Amino acid sequence: MMRNLNIITRKAERKPCRVFGKVRYLNKEVDARILNLSTSGVALEIRSPLHAASGSRVQLLADDLGILHGVIRWTHNGRLGIQFDTNSNARAQVSSYFRFFHREVKPVLAR
Known about the structure:
111 residues, 6 strands, Thrombin, subunit H
């Protein structure tokens, strides 16, 4: 039996990485660690609760990436999925990160 949950996922290739930064929502900032990154979005883990619902506009601040603007698409157990704004320069910033700063990351623990 096949289940259709109508979940929309990123089509762009995701690459695992370990970049630390902050997520800013309104006037609150929380520390975050980027788990995987693509030109269209990011999955990250946050250290403290961020009371923002899906559809909320946020900023991602990271030294290697700069400031990226986006929308929260999902939240689950201290993790967030953010879709980057298409009208921003996010694609150029992410491409630059992969060209100059990215190093392949292998998982420490296997599932």
